[in-house]
Each structure stands twice: as structure tokens, then as C-alpha cells.
Amino acid sequence: MSSDMSKVYFFKVCKALLVMALVCVTLANCTLQSESVAVASSFGKSSSENHADTSTNQENVNGILVMAHGGGKAWNKQVEDAVLPLRDEYHVAVAFGMADAASLQGGVKELESKGVKNVAVVRLFVSGDSWRERTAKILGLVEGAPEFSSKNNQAIDFRGSESREELHSSLMAKSFWKVESSANLGMSAIGLSAADEMEVVIGDRVESLSEQPSSEDVVVIAHGPGDDAENFLWISRIQKILSKVQTKLQLHDVKAFTLREDWPEKREDAEAAIREYVSEANLAGRTVIVVPFRVSGFGPYAELLRGLNYRSNGLGLLPHKNVTLWIRNQAQEIHRRLLAGG
């Protein structure tokens, strides 16, 4: 083979090798890109799944402890039913009793055992002032509660109390100490009487009983406190809700009362005022609709109104979806404060 032909052959071989190398590099890059896409896709899925898990975990980190007065089995069940929809979003516990350390401690520990780090204590009371200072001390939000010891442990099981007398006796024997917890604790400030959500509840109760609004008077009765200034706030807040309901439904009149049930002398005056109002409406030929502003049930109002004409379905604020909504809204606000370090 001549020298010129050898050179030509050599250059052809080199060119072929170069082309093959380029093809290999291109194929390798494609493979890497495919693998990168696959990995990115896999991470994307993982990231999405992790985000979902994080979201779920975040929800699980935030728990709700609903604090309620407690009553008989039917009363307690209405509270349990009200929080049931929230269990799809949060871990939820219920502490029955009026600021009882043992009950609150049990609820906190129940939530901690499920991984909850931020506990929103939502107090399901008509007034935000009810047991607020005592509860804040028990939760360690302010000073004043002692550390746990057997001497201050008077744990009471509120769930089985059937009679009013038995329940009242149990509630007077409350335990008091600072709960032991590694979680962040926060507490709701307002009660149901100051909640915008209750306008819908009262409106629905009245509307379900109303036939001729222009000739109907609505009486809303709440338990009430002993302190006169606090009692004024109870009535003012409920009357504010009632005024909105009156405007919406075009009712003849609306009136909020408190019975002040646990203070005999003040109760006597309250009973007289309520009966007088209903009697005057009866004499005027107007229909009286009575709605209890209580968490559950009609309370002692049937006896109070004996002999008078009125219409009622006996329902308190529960059952109603807006009570659940209020609990959720209060919990979310507390969680925001806790996450912000407040």
C-alpha cells in the first residue's frame, strides 16, 4: 500500500472513531438526562409525598384540648359529637370539669402521647371570664399553681355524673396544680357569648320555631354569674347577638336574661323579671319563643316558666355546626400565636 493511501486510510479510521465517540457521548448524556429526569420525577413525587406528610405531621403537631363544664352522659356526648369533625384535622382531647387540674393534665398527656407539640386549650364556656385565671395558672401561663403532689390531687371523674346534685358536688372538689407538660400550651380568651358564630346558632333556633315574626318576642336565657358587673357583660353580649337576629328575621322584640342560678337572692329577682316579660307578651297576644343560651339543654327553664305560654324546642347551643366552627377558629388562632412564639 502506498504512503498516500495509508494516510487516507488512517484519516478515515480516525474519523470513524471520532464519530463513534461522539455518538457514545451523546447516548451517555441522553441516558444521564433520562436518569436525571427520572430522579427528579422520583424526588418530585417524594417531595410531594413528603410535603403531604409534613402537612399531615404539621396538623398532628397542633392539637386541641376542649375544656367543658361536664354533665350527664347525654350532655357530654353532645360535646364529644361537636368535636368529632375536628378529629379529621387534629388530635383532639376533651377535659370535662370547671378548671380541674387532673382533667386538664389527662387531656394534655393524651395529646402529647400522640406527638402533639402545640396544644390549643379551647374553653367551651358561655363567658370567657369563667375560670379563666384559674385555668391560666393550671396551664402554667401565669404564676400561682403549685407543682403536683398527692395533697392537691382530688381527681374527679365527671363523665358518669347523672344528676345535677351529683355533678355540682363533684365540681366543687376540683384539683389544682400546674400541669406537667413539654408541649407549648395556649388558651382561648373569649366565650360563646362573644362569638360571632353564635348569631347563626341563635338565628337557626329562632327561625325553626318562628311562624309570624312580627308578632313574636324572643327570650334568651343564660345561667349568669354572681358578680353584677360581669352579669351586665353577659347580658350585653347576648343582647348584641339577639339584635342582629331580630333585624334579620324582623321579630317584634328580643330580650336577653340571666337566671343567676347559683345565687338564690339574685335568682329570685331574675325569675321575677323573666316571668314578667313573658306574661306581658302573653297578655298582648304575642308568641314567646324561648331559647337557652347554654352549651347544652334547657336547664331549669321549664320550671321557671311553668304556667306561661311559650314555644321552645329545648335545644341549647349544641348540637350545631357553628359551635364546631367556633372551636376550630379559636384553636387556629391559638396555634398561630404559639407558632409565632406568643
Quick rundown:
By secondary structure, the protein is an alpha/beta fold.
Walk me through what this model shows.
Residues 1-19, 21-57 and 155-173 have low confidence and may be disordered. The protein has two domains: 60-193 and 322-339, Rossmann fold (3-Layer(aba) Sandwich); 195-321, Rossmann fold. Helix 7 links the parallel strand 5 and strand 6. Helix 6 packs across helix 7. By secondary structure, it is an alpha/beta fold. The radius of gyration is 33 Å and the shape is elongated. The protein is built from ten helices and seven strands. The strands form two sheets. Strands 2-1-3-4 form a four-stranded parallel beta sheet, with helices on both faces. The chain has a three-stranded parallel beta sheet with strand order 6-5-7, sandwiched between helices. The longest helix has 59 residues, at 3-61.
Key attributes of the depicted protein:
342 residues; alpha/beta; Rossmann fold; 2 domains; four-stranded parallel beta sheet; three-stranded parallel beta sheet; 10 helices; elongated; disordered N terminus
